Amino acid sequence: MKSIVKKTLLLAIFLSAASVLFAQSGNSLIDKGIAEFKSGKYSTSLTYFRDVVIDSNQREYHSDAYFWIAKSYIALRQLDNAEENLEFFILNYPDHPFYQEALYQKGRLMFLQNDYENCILESYNFLEKYPDSPYASNAYFWTAESLYALGRLEEAESLYTHIIYTFPSSYKVESANYRLSMIEQKYREESLVELLKLTHEEYLKSIEEFQVREKTYENALDSYQKKLSLIDGDGDNSQGSRTLSLELLDLQTEIRNKDNEIMALKRKIAELEYRLTTAESRAAEAAEAAKIIEVNPETAVVKTETEKIEDIIVEPEKSDSDILSSDDKIKLLELKTRAQEVKSFYLKYLSNVGN
């Protein structure tokens, strides 16, 4: 009897010691996984967290493991796996200390998946529930980024400004300032593109008008030649020559004015094209060098995210009506040449009449 009692006590002590040993092992695995995660060794950290999940004796630490598995997958950009584990954590552990961050990470994950509408929705719900969260500035930032990606620049601009003035110590302030400068440049470029388009339209309109004028000049030439024939036939050359001279001066003035107008438009278009090309080049260089900086509020460890910012400056598509073609330029030169020929003809004629 005493032997049985002794064996029972020994078994109880053994099971108790084993339980403590397993618990220490689970906690140790989580700690090691977190250490590897903070060192940027995300694949290695996953092995530790998975070891916890597959061990039924470590059930006490399953919640922590699932949370860190999701974050590790996010860091590795294995976004579908991250979503699966994050949703499992949120659904099964609503009272966990990491639950608040998990909701924030869900909104951020939506952005990384290019699901901008749902990112805005999830981030809004998070901020409604936790307005004073240490992740609030980050949630506002991903909302602003989603708005920016959707082309809703005014709304994005408002949120970036809110981050700068409401969370001046946030690590997102630098990125928000950068985005504001990109939005301002985008506004300038859009204005410049519109101005360039209008200028080209004005240029082509001037060419068309010049063609009409040139036809008028040709008709006027026929009329003047007929008048000259009548004047020569009547023998009254003096008065007819003076009248014709005045009309020719008006014609020369119109040709000169139109020529100056078209040349001014050409210079203006060339200047606008140069400014637009320069702006696009600078924006592309800025986008290449830019990186988003994110802070982990729990550990106050700053890290540079590896995701590349989407194209900030979208180069405007150039249609046929936006660019003066080579044919247009050749046609313009031909028109100018023909107009000059008309002018030269009359100048020569007047010179002969004067003699």
UniProtKB/TrEMBL annotation:
Signal peptide: 1-23
Stored Pfam families: TPR_6 (PF13174)
Stored InterPro entries: TPR-like_helical_dom_sf, TPR_rpt
Coiled-coil region list: 207-289
Keyword set includes Signal: yes
Keywords recorded for this protein, A-Z: Coiled coil, Signal
Name of the protein in question: Tetratricopeptide repeat protein
